[in-house]
Amino acid sequence: MIISAKSVQALFTAVAQTGKNKGYLKAKAPPSRSNGYAAWQAAKSICNPHKVFTCGMPTFTNEQKEVYGEVKHLFDALNIRSFDRNRNILKDIGLW
Questions:
Q1: Interhelix angle for 35-47 vs 5-14, to 10°?
Q2: Is the separation of the CB atoms in 70 and 4 below 8 Å?
Q3: Average confidence (pLDDT) over 56-71
Q4: How many domains does the chain have?
Q5: Structure pTM?
Q6: pLDDT-above-90 percentage for the chain
Q7: Three-class secondary structure of residue 9 per DSSP
Q8: For residue 23, is it left (φ>0), alpha (ψ between -120 and 50) or beta?
Q9: Residue 93: predicted pLDDT
Q10: Is the pLDDT of residue 49 over 90?
């Protein structure tokens, strides 16, 4: 599976790079006019759909729509579900 460089960069901005949550999706979405926001929404829609804020999606630019589609397809195709810290905690205690 190959995704574009802009989607890789967007996903990079949607994931925490330092601290105890390094490697997990950020708790708060990046700014809504960025590609990082589209990547964050796509990843959340697969990892923890309860946290997706769908009101922002109709205002996506064409570039954001491409990023959203690529990231969502990547996460879905590779069955990636563990990027959300809250989902992992709930799964560990048997509530997911």
A1: 70
A2: yes
A3: 93
A4: 1
A5: 0.84
A6: 50
A7: helix
A8: left
A9: 83
A10: no
Counting other chains too, the contacts that 24-30 makes at CB distance below 8 Å and 24 or more residues apart are 24/83, 24/84, 24/85, 25/83, 25/84, 25/85, 27/85, 29/53, 29/56
d(CA 15, CA 29): 10
Q: Is the dihedral of CA 16, 62, 60, 74 positive or negative?
A: negative
Phi, psi at residue 28, to the nearest 5°?
-110, 145
Instruction: State how far the alpha carbon of 84 is from the alpha carbons of 5, 35, 52, 63, 87, in Å.
Output: 23, 19, 12, 24, 5
| pLDDT reported for residue 83 | 73
Token pair in block for residue 79: 């069955």
**pLDDT value for 33:** 93
Is the distance from CB of 67 to CB of 42 less than 8 angstroms?
Answer: yes
Cα–Cα distance, 73 to 27 (Å, whole number): 21
Question: Based on the number of CB atoms within 10 Å of its own CB, is 11 exposed (0-12), middle (13-18) or buried (19 or more)?
Answer: buried
Domain holding 36, by residue range, is 5-92
